[in-house]
Specification:
By secondary structure, the chain is α/β, with parallel strands linked by helices. It folds into two domains: 135 residues, ATPase, nucleotide binding domain (Nucleotidyltransferase, domain 5); 167 residues, ATPase, nucleotide binding domain (Nucleotidyltransferase, domain 5, 2-Layer Sandwich). Helices cover 41% and strands 18% of the residues. The protein contains ten helices and ten strands. The strands form two sheets. A five-stranded mixed β-sheet has the order 3-2-1-4-5, sandwiched between helices. The protein has a five-stranded mixed β-sheet with strand order 8-7-6-9-10, sandwiched between helices.
């Protein structure tokens, strides 16, 4: 058994269109390499078949680059970790197959990691690290959740989207505006130049901690259909700012309600949309007002990356929570 003070983990993330590999040593990230896929810009969104083929091309050089940057050899590895889901089936299978083969060849443990759980535990890569329990608003292109975290292995979703994710609302708005893929970050950029009060878009009012973004997307669509191309071009920053305000208002309303009801004052955000400047400003502002201690991840750990997979795998390694070799890419655990 590998000694606890000399744990090296190679982690692989391939859930969507980013191929990433990271190396962790005793809880510290030594390397985090990410290769994107430019081809999807031609189609205005991720094409699953093209994504899986690009993963096949990228995975060997990305892993090699991570190992070189970390300055270690394969013989030093204690375990191989990989994203088991959720994600695109073809993309996941590339990572799963590579991780299985390498773990078998080196005769070391294999560790499966839930992608959404990893987004939450990305907060333990760098200081400051939230104490348990804490609440995490996890927001991405495919998921919107409020999660209560009692420990690395004990997480409970207390609120989630009933239909579309917040990230999808951003991307759909960008597509309607004719912005290139990925459009979410562009909405954020234009919003910083616009007036958040220029246009009024509805903020859903549903009970509990759950979210809904389908109605907002429809409202934006109807608004766009009534405008001329010239109007939209002239008022692009204002439209982006107004839509972004509606999305963030909905997110923060539910998060504030959950924090008040649970009495938890340590509040974090995670996932790709946590890179949005408006959301980052909102949680900092509300945190100051409500007495929260807030935790906002570094930009490199917001979007899909293998460092968060490695960090989650480290916690599982310490508990000897290893995978069976016949793991399914659809595996689910921990309430996710």
């Amino acid at each position: 058994m590998t000694k606890e003070n000399n744990i090296y983990i190679l982690a692989i993330e391939s859930s969507c269109d980013d191929t990433s590999a990271a190396v962790l040593h005793n809880g510290k990230i030594l390397a985090n390499v990410v290769a994107g896929q430019e081809i999807h810009k031609l189609w205005g969104g991720v094409v699953p078949e093209l994504a899986s083929r690009a993963h096949q091309q990228n995975i060997v050089p990305v892993v090699d680059a991570a190992m070189r940057e970390a300055g270690i050899t394969q013989k030093q590895l204690s375990a191989i970790a990989f994203t088991c889901g959720p994600g695109l089936l073809g993309s996941l299978l590339v990572g799963v197959s590579f991780a299985k083969a390498m773990a078998l060849a080196l005769n070391i443990p294999l560790i499966e990691v839930n992608h959404m759980q990893a987004h939450v535990l990305a907060h333990f890569i760098d200081a400051p690290q939230p104490p348990f329990p804490f609440l995490c608003l996890t927001v991405s292109g495919g998921h919107t959740q409020i999660v209560r975290i009692n420990s690395p292995a004990d997480m409970k979703i207390i609120g989630e989207t009933m239909d579309d994710a917040a990230g999808e609302a951003f991307d759909k708005t960008a597509k309607l505006l004719g912005l290139p893929y990925p459009g979410g970050p562009l909405i954020d950029q234009y919003a910083q130049q616009g007036n958040t009060e220029a246009f009024k878009f509805p903020v859903p009012n549903i009970p509990g901690y759950d979210f809904s973004f389908s109605g907002l997307k429809t409202s934006v669509l109807y608004f766009m259909q009534k405008q001329t191309p010239e109007f939209l071009s002239t008022h692009l920053p204002d439209v982006c700012a107004s839509v972004q305000k509606a999305i963030i208002t909905h997110l923060m309303k539910k998060l504030k309600q959950a924090a008040a009801d649970t009495g938890i004052s340590h509040i974090a955000i995670a996932g790709g949309v946590s890179a949005n400047s408006g959301l980052r400003d909102a949680i900092s502002r509300e945190g100051t007002k409500l007495g929260w201690t807030t935790y906002i991840p570094a930009f490199e750990y917001c979007t899909d990356n293998a460092a968060m997979i490695a960090m989650t795998a480290y916690f599982k390694f310490l508990e000897s929570d290893f995978s069976e070799q016949s793991i399914s890419p659809y595996a689910r655990f921990g309430g996710f």
